[in-house]
């Protein structure tokens, strides 16, 4: 992919994300496209619109000792609290769980789901009979 193709792809993704908002008119979308294209042409750099995950040394928005409580797990990128981080990381920051852990140097056992939510889901699964291993052999029919 050439640098020009990368620029157009970046502008296209930004404009597409902006177009999903309900309060945006078609004229606003076109204006944003022209403004972004002009800015990238002036600067000649794609790094001006680099994704947040490309930063090698990210600084946590929340101290690690307060990154999770019993009911919430706080995003170290933006500081917002959630029951589960996976969807937020992908949608807002364009990161996978592995990239998130690597960016902040988190161990594999660092929770990305609130402990109370995890316990609640585990209890529900047990009530539904999941996790049991009680298989019987089929009775041969003669």
From TrEMBL:
<dbReference type="InterPro" id="IPR008807">
    <property type="entry name" value="ROS_MUCR"/>
</dbReference>
<comment type="similarity">
    <text>Belongs to the ros/MucR family.</text>
</comment>
<dbReference type="GO" id="GO:0003677">
    <property type="term" value="F:DNA binding"/>
</dbReference>
<dbReference type="Pfam" id="PF05443">
    <property type="entry name" value="ROS_MUCR"/>
</dbReference>
<dbReference type="InterPro" id="IPR041920">
    <property type="entry name" value="ROS/MUCR_sf"/>
</dbReference>
<dbReference type="GO" id="GO:0008270">
    <property type="term" value="F:zinc ion binding"/>
</dbReference>
<dbReference type="GO" id="GO:0006355">
    <property type="term" value="P:regulation of DNA-templated transcription"/>
</dbReference>
<protein>
    <submittedName>
        <fullName>Putative transcriptional regulator</fullName>
    </submittedName>
</protein>
């Amino acid at each position: 992919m050439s640098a020009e193709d990368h620029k157009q792809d970046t502008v296209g993704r930004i404009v597409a994300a902006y177009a999903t908002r309900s309060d945006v008119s078609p004229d606003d979308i076109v204006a944003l496209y022209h403004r972004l294209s002009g800015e990238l042409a002036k600067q000649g750099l794609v790094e001006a619109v680099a994704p947040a995950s490309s930063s090698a040394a990210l600084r946590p928005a929340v101290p690690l000792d307060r990154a999770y409580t019993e009911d919430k797990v706080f995003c170290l990128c933006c500081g917002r609290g959630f029951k589960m981080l996976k969807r937020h990381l992908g949608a807002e920051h364009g990161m996978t769980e592995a990239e998130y852990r690597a960016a902040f140097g988190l161990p594999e056992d660092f929770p990305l789901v609130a402990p109370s939510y995890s316990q609640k889901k585990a209890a529900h699964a047990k009530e539904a009979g999941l996790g049991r291993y009680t298989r019987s052999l089929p009775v041969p029919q003669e």
